Structures are given as structure tokens and as C-alpha cells.
Sequence to fold (165 residues):
Amino acid sequence: MMKTKIAPFLLILIYSIIVGCEKDDICLIETPSTPQLVVRLFDKDNRNEYKAANNIIVYGVGNEDPLMTINSDSLALPLKVQSAFTQYAFVLPSSTVSSTVSDTLQFNYGRFDEYINRACGYRANFTLNENVISYPINAPLWIESFEILIDTVSNEQQAHLAIYH
Fold:
């Protein structure tokens, strides 16, 4: 007798849970997340030609572990959401410590948030400052110049910044 009273209640409860879930209650893997800064490397002598970096190790300033090693003409760098700038050290390893080449770049930007949905919340987008790169430690050694290609970092489909070396 007790089972017959509980069974309809359970069926109604399960049905209302299934029907009550909305599409935006689940954050799908395809949902865009906070984009990274896409940088393309170009030849300083022929500015239309890509030029790969060879074994340049990228460190986040203050981190001991490298973020990545660049062996291509493009890279994607995460920007700090809680700051107006992010610093990276680009180290070209050498057989001797005294001849190691290192540039420290500071990427300057503003942040604006975009509401995705109830399950995913917000994602940060960035607007590159006119003076997007500064050199907090010393003048650049391997970078000759840079150019902003797209000033709004809201996707990773196109390069945002060109570095000429």
C-alpha cells in the first residue's frame, strides 16, 4: 500500500527534474571561454613574411616553470584577468649563461566582461592599449618592433599582434 503512494510521487519528482532543466543549465564544452592573445612573428626585413622562432622559451614573470617553447611563427598567450597587464620573459637558450638572450615584455590591456549564460557565467575579453608592449626590465634584444593587428581580444581565430624580429 505504501509503495503505491510513493511510486507516483517519485515519477512526478523525476519528471519535473527532467522537464525543469533548461538548456543554459549546462555549460557546453563548445562554449567560448576567455580568449588568449594570438601573436604572429614576422621577419623584420620582409614584414609580409612569417618568421618562426627557434626554441624560444616563454616564462610568465614570477614563474619558474616555462609556459611553452616556441618553434613556430605564432603563439597564444593567456592574459591575467585580474590585472591590466601581463609580463612574459622570452628566453633564447644558449650553451653559455653569459650569452643567453632574454626579452621581457609587458602586454598592457583593458578588460571587459561578456555574459555567456547562467551556467557558464562570464568570460573576460580584452582591449589592447595603444602602447600594448612595454619593456619593464631592459630594451628588447631580439624584437625590433610590433604592430597591433586587431585591438580587441575576443576570439582566437585571428592574430591580434604582430612582432617583427
